[in-house]
Amino acid sequence: MSTLVSNIGELVSESDNLPARAQRYAFSFDHGVITWIGPEDQAPQCDDIIDAHGGAVLPGFVDSHAHLIFAGDRSADFAARMSGDSYSAGGIASTVTATRAASDAELRSNAQRLVGQMHSQGITTLEIKSGYGLTVSDEQRALRIAREFTSETTFLGAHVVPAEFKSDPDAYVDLVCGDMLTACAPFSRWIDVFCDRGAFTPEQSARVLLAGKAAGLKVRLHANQLESLGGIEVAAACGAISVDHLTFMSDMELAVMAENNIVATLLPGVEFSTRSPYPDARRFLEAGISVAIATDCNPGSSFITSMPFCIALAVREMHMSVDEAVRAATAGGAQALDRHDVGRIEPGMSADFLILDRPSIDYLAYSPGTSPVQRVFRGGQLLRSSHE
Ligand SMILES: [Zn+2]
């Protein structure tokens, strides 16, 4: 059955062949796939019509970085940080203890709640990482549960060194590259490492990424959140699709990312939640690097499921225009996940789109704290609606 989406305030397709904000445009889809886009007065006859009531329409958000399989509560860490404590990678240990102790049902229902929030905020494609189990069985369990929610699953056994391996981190890296990878690869599309102070060295990171790659996984990396240790060179050498965080970056590292066509995934919720300096997105854009923004939803450093809030932060604090931030949250996220079927509204793409209750996408950044996302469609099906 064909459906026409019409009466659109402005259509932001992220297609390279159309105006950034097309006026009086419409599009159609059939069997969940977009079939036509063009001026509304040339629209084909369709079986059904979705009336956008003058609201802006844009692609569904693609959140390429989230840690949703965990148990426990870190709200007190946040409050302590806001009272003056500094953030370090070590706080992850308390989440690991709680996650290991939790039942499958607890982990599943916590993830379900967060995924539901993401859907309501317009996220139609999302990535989920492991990384709070840090044993062979707990990491595999996390990925098995993550797979119930998304095909974009990432094995992050190298998130931090667990307490029982503190005296011999390399033995833990051996485990990650060996039995843990073997157990987790069947449930994963990606391999990832936290390469930073207090986590893994560039040498250890390279070992894990190359082992993952040899097991058929695609490569992404957490780097340069706390300092610049050499993770960018490792990412380039291992063929990473995306490097995420990038709070601290030298001009040389920017050049390496541009040369190697690596997507820069910026996570403004982390700077917000850890009261850290925001990276200047203009440096990445001017270096010719594709930028994605993602929530990094996790209990420690960014307990945020709202992509509109991240867009507002990217605009206000990282100096992106609204158009650039929306592109980073849609087409940019798709590029960071190496996905060619989502993130744009154009023929052949999945019919994943958002109808706002405001006439322009500016409201995503202009009116933070109230989401203008009114209707969320994925594969042509209504996923969420705040319509009365
Ligand atoms: Zn992360």
Structural commentary:
The protein has 388 residues and is α/β, with parallel strands linked by helices. The chain contains 14 helices and 16 strands. α3 crosses α4 and α6 packs parallel to α7. The mean pLDDT is 96. It starts with a strand and ends with a strand. β15 and β16 form a beta hairpin. The protein has an 8-stranded parallel beta sheet. The chain has a 4-stranded mixed beta sheet with strand order 3-2-1-4, with no helix packed on it. Helices cover 35% and strands 21% of the residues. It folds into 2 domains: 100 residues, Urease, subunit C, domain 1; 276 residues, TIM Barrel, CATH 3.20.20.140. It is globular.
CATH superfamily of the largest domain: Metal-dependent hydrolases
CATH fold-level topology of the largest domain: TIM Barrel
Strand segment tally: 16
SSE arrangement, N to C: EEEEEEHHHEHEHEHEHEHEHHEHHHEHEE
In percent, how much strand structure appears in the residues?
15-25%
Shape: globular
Question: What is the architecture of the largest domain at the second tier of CATH?
Answer: Alpha-Beta Barrel
**Which hetero ligands occur in this complex?**
zinc ion
CATH class of the largest domain: Alpha Beta
Largest sheet: 8 strands, parallel
* Spatial ordering of strands, largest sheet: 6-7-8-9-10-11-12-13
How large, in whole angstroms, is the Cα Rg? Answer: 21 Å
Average pLDDT reading: 96
